Description:
It is a single chain. About 60% of the residues lie in helices and about 10% in strands. With about 450 residues, it is an alpha+beta fold. It has one domain (about 5-40, about 55-445): Up-down Bundle (Outer membrane efflux proteins (OEP)). The chain has a four-stranded antiparallel beta sheet, with no helix packed on it. A two-stranded parallel ribbon has the order 1-4. Strand 5 (about 300-310) and strand 6 (about 315-325) form a beta hairpin. The radius of gyration is 36 Å and the shape is elongated.
Amino acid sequence: xxxxxxxxTAMPAMADDGHLHSPRGVPNPDVLTSDRDLPRREWAxxxxxxxxxxxxxxxxxxxxxxxxxxxxxxxxxxxxAAFIEIEARHGEELxxxxxxxxxxxxxxxxFAGGRAQSVETTFSLTQAIELGDKRLKxxxxxxxxxxxxxxxxxxxxxQVATAAARAFVDVITAQERIRVLREFVTIAEKTQTxxxxxxxxxxxSPIEFDRSIVAAARAKALVAGEQARLAAAKxxxxxxxxxxxxxxxxxxxxxxxGRGVPSLATLKSLIDxxxxxxxxxxxxGRRNAQLDVEVSKSIPDIKFGAGVRHFAxxxxxxxxxxVSIPLQxxxxxxxxxxxxxQRIAKAEQDREAAxxxxxxxxxxxxxxxxxxxxxxxxLETQVLPPAQSAFERTKTGYDEGKFDILNVxxxxxxxxxxxxxxxxxxxxxxxxxxxxxxxxGRDLGGL
Length: 447
């Protein structure tokens, strides 16, 4: 299973509108036409539990790629933080759609400097009536804000899964290199034994035995160094699910033998699946919605008030009513409207910039994939077979007295260095493949 297949099955996917879920009780502004369609009172927003798990995962003796990515997605705090931001945006969506509160006004007149009997007290309620469908327009903008948070959440998941998969490849590579180097140690020790027998039989110089000792010791030193590299790679992988210590024994899997590289043209047609690019449709929509909000602000609201005025001198009361309309002599919100229009144009350019950046990342990743595939093919078909053959012939010639130990050690080192280079090329290929798959959102095996 590839990183993409694991990523898109590990946790619930978002809906087409960018929302991970639809909050219960929240009206959908996309199907409403005016403020009259909105509820009169504010509605309740359901807060969803943060997905994943808390605390630390248990110890796993053998960890698979699927388990590593699932752990990262379940425990990584960046993923949880991105989800919580979605819930916060839903709260702002709720707030954007509520009506302004009525105001209680109490006025007391003639209470000082005159007769107490002339005091006039007025109690009134004032309500602002928003015109221009301001509530709906605010709600539409806030709805798209929540949608953008959903896309950001998906982007964080892709980034975490990709990084965890690449770290997993580093662990596999270190494990494979240790396996090869241990074979190197075994062969070096056998060579040392063979040289020792020849020296004791008077067929070789003691210097050759010293050189074989050095070769065996160097092989053991390489194993020790690679073991340290493996320990560091395992710690780095564990960090992705928040473990400060390594909580697994080994990773299960082998580096693949894949060498296929899809064409860049084919991959370019798939980048619209990437959350970093897909989010821009909602971003442009949000900025258009924000322009509608600013235009609606240019329409003055009306305030109506009604109440009762009490006259102390006659102990009588009278009804009062007020109407307040702002006169737009100075402020028509023109500057905010111009700014909103320019930000729409900026969003279009930002979308193209994001697309160009993504295409650049894709071209770079495909280039890495091509380099690794070409190097791997050359090493496996043109370098490793003749190196192995040369070593076997040199070893046989040494046993027959035709070559000295330097020829054997050089041929032996060439074989194992080439095998290590093959592992590095395979690891580079796998990491580049993970990066390409994360960008296009597809398994390269089907392309």
